[in-house]
């Protein structure tokens, strides 16, 4: 009986080791970079679409407002700083800010309020050194596109949403609309040497200067 239990234990142990190496860290995105490049070159996917997906995935795209207000509170400013830092990395891209309100108030008033909220975001980006020419158009949907369908006050509906809207015309970073030029630029920047740090090798020894 004891021998059988040992054999069974070995069998279970061997079976549990049959999964391929790296399965725990593969989140289903392996090969996406190659696929994106192929789709761009084939015209199935644009650089703007790729950046829109990245922006939405890497930073919060939405901020919220107090009732009947277009003031940016501390929480909104923290999120907008994240957006601004991302936007600055891609000077060839344009962005659009969409303003929204909750359902309280008239349609005309809420369209105006949504526009004020979107303009507040644009002004904040400009204060961070982002050219207004890259903030393509400020749009207000007022209360026509709520996140939460309710006739009452709801902070979740009082928001702006920032998104990629296109590319800057004839920007030097874009080569025939292909993604490779921007990828190459980022690659070169990432390989830049650290200032004040150099390594010398002499007679088999390395020292830091």
Short overview:
With 209 residues, the protein is an alpha+beta fold.
Q: How many domain units? A: 1
From the alpha carbons, calculate the radius of gyration and give it in angstroms: 26 Å
Helix content: 40-55%
- What gross morphology would you assign? elongated
- The helix/strand series, from N terminus to C terminus, equals HHHEHEHEEHEE
- Mean of all residue-level pLDDT scores: 78
The major sheet is characterized as: 4 strands, mixed
Could you tell me the strand content as a percent range? 15-25%
Q: Strands of the largest sheet, in order across it?
A: 1-4-2-3
CATH architecture heading: 2-Layer Sandwich
* Head-to-tail CA distance between termini: 68 Å
Tally of individual helices: 6
What does this 3D model show about the protein?
The protein is α+β, with helices and mostly antiparallel strands. It has a single domain, classed as 2-Layer Sandwich (60s Ribosomal Protein L30, Chain: A). The protein is built from six helices and six strands, in the order αααβαβαββαββ. It has helices at residues 2-15, 32-42, 47-58, 74-88, 107-127, 180-190, and strands at 62-64, 93-100, 135-142, 159-167, 199-202, 205-208. The strands form two sheets. A four-stranded mixed β-sheet has the order 1-4-2-3. The protein has a two-stranded antiparallel sheet with strand order 5-6. A hairpin with a 2-residue loop joins strand 5 and strand 6. The longest helix is centred in the middle third of the chain and has 21 residues, at 107-127. It starts with a helix and ends with a strand.
């Amino acid at each position: 009986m004891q021998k059988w239990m040992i054999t069974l234990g070995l069998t279970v142990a061997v079976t549990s080791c049959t999964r391929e190496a790296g399965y725990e860290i593969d989140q289903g995105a392996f090969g996406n970079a190659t696929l994106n490049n192929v789709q761009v070159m084939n015209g199935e996917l644009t650089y703007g679409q790729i950046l829109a997906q990245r922006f939405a995935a890497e930073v919060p795209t939405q901020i919220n407002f107090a009732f009947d207000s277009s003031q940016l509170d501390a929480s909104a400013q923290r999120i907008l700083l994240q957006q601004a830092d991302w936007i600055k990395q891609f000077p060839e891209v344009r962005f659009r800010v969409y303003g929204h309100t909750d359902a309280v108030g008239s349609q005309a008033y809420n369209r105006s309020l949504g526009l004020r909220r979107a303009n507040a975001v644009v002004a904040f980006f400009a204060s961070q050194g982002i050219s207004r020419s890259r903030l393509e158009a400020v749009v207000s949907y007022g209360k026509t596109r709520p996140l939460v369908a309710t006739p009452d006050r709801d902070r979740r509906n009082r928001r702006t949403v920032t998104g990629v809207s296109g590319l800057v015309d004839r920007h030097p970073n874009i080569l025939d609309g292909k993604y490779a030029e921007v990828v190459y630029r980022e690659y070169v920047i990432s390989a830049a040497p650290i200032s004040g740090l150099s390594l010398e090798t002499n007679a088999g020894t390395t020292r830091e200067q």
